[in-house]
Structure formats: structure tokens, C-alpha cells
């Protein structure tokens, strides 16, 4: 009975989540359950000195986080082991972008996702239907960041992310561009801009303008200000690639 009381929130949350689309509905329910457990264990958190916890709402930002955690679990497990460096990367990302408030709940959701074997095609299809093109690009960048947490991306991780990219209906050029942001190769800067090294200066400038629109943090504005911060790293890598090419070509 004591165990049941400790986890009643999660049970109620999962029942609620089961009424929504699977599997994100279940994880959303689980997320709500984590919050309910904390409220119940703290007597509801209604005392004057206790800060109220906000239940996650099924909006675009919540969907982004839950979708990213599901996909992150697939990448973390892809090489057959769960590495501490990858979990630390995810935890650091969550803290830096969204603060400490809900970290326990988010990591609990990740743990639950790691224990499940999702149907990747169905999962990605649901994510595709419930998220914008720009947010799916950001998820792809996040997944490569996880794979690179130990400064070495295994081929099995690349293959997993490539499959996810395909299932999310992202163009192959997007996969190549974002992948290049994590590799130090001779043509990486051109790949980020989706250009061959033989591109003219005019083509370079045109490609840069196009990529700015695609990768600018403002493209995530619909998710909230904190999510625009998430997109800054990706945009910075684009800027660095363009500046490096311009410097080598003697362009201003």
C-alpha cells in the first residue's frame, strides 16, 4: 500500500496518458504523474512557504521536450549500452535550457523511455504529425549532440539518427548539414551550407541567406523564448561555417 501511495500519481498519469496518442500520450501522462507524486508527497504544496509546481500542459513546448526525450532514448540505447556521458549531456542540456525546476520529472521520463522498445516508425510518425519542420530540425541537432557527448560518434548512432531523420520526413540535405556540424572535415563547412566546395561566391551568399532563415532561433518562437535559446547553438555553427569560408576566400 505504501508503494502504491508513493506512485499513485504516475499510475493516474499513465491512465490519463493512455487516452492520448501513444507513445507520447503515455509519456505525457507519466510526466504529469511525476508532478502529482511530488505534490502528494509534499501535502499538495499549498503552504505559504511552498512554491507551487506547475503541471505540464500538452502544448507545443511540452510535445517538443517529450518527443526529444523519446528519440534521445533511441540514440542512447543504439550502441547497446547506456553511457553516463550521454545521460550527463541530456541532463546538462535540460538544466541550461529550462532550469532545475522540472529536471527530476524530465529525467524520470527519459528513464521510462529507456526501458521501452518503441516502434520507431509509428513514434516518428506521431512526432511528425504533431511538430513543425523547424522543431524537428532542432530535435535532429539535439540527437547528434547526444551521440557526440563522448567526442566520438559511432556509426550505429549515425545510422539510428539517419533513420529517425527519414521517419521524421526531413530531407537528406538537412541530415547531412546538421551532421557536418559535429565533424571536423575538409568540406564540413560547405556541407553545413549545403554547398559543394566549387560553389561560386554568389552561390555561397545565397545559400547563407537561405540557411539563416532555416536555422535562425526565431524559427522556434512558437515554442516560447526558452526554446529560442535552444536554437542558438545550431545557428552559431552555421555562422562559424560561413565566416570560415569567407575568410579563406578573402570575402568580407
From TrEMBL:
<dbReference type="Pfam" id="PF05099">
    <property type="entry name" value="TerB"/>
</dbReference>
<protein>
    <submittedName>
        <fullName>DnaJ-class molecular chaperone with C-terminal Zn finger domain</fullName>
    </submittedName>
</protein>
<keyword id="KW-0472">Membrane</keyword>
<dbReference type="Pfam" id="PF00226">
    <property type="entry name" value="DnaJ"/>
</dbReference>
<keyword id="KW-0812">Transmembrane</keyword>
<feature type="domain" description="J">
    <location>
        <begin position="188"/>
        <end position="252"/>
    </location>
</feature>
<dbReference type="InterPro" id="IPR029024">
    <property type="entry name" value="TerB-like"/>
</dbReference>
<keyword id="KW-1133">Transmembrane helix</keyword>
<dbReference type="InterPro" id="IPR001623">
    <property type="entry name" value="DnaJ_domain"/>
</dbReference>
<dbReference type="InterPro" id="IPR050817">
    <property type="entry name" value="DjlA_DnaK_co-chaperone"/>
</dbReference>
<dbReference type="InterPro" id="IPR007791">
    <property type="entry name" value="DjlA_N"/>
</dbReference>
<dbReference type="InterPro" id="IPR036869">
    <property type="entry name" value="J_dom_sf"/>
</dbReference>
<feature type="transmembrane region" description="Helical">
    <location>
        <begin position="12"/>
        <end position="36"/>
    </location>
</feature>
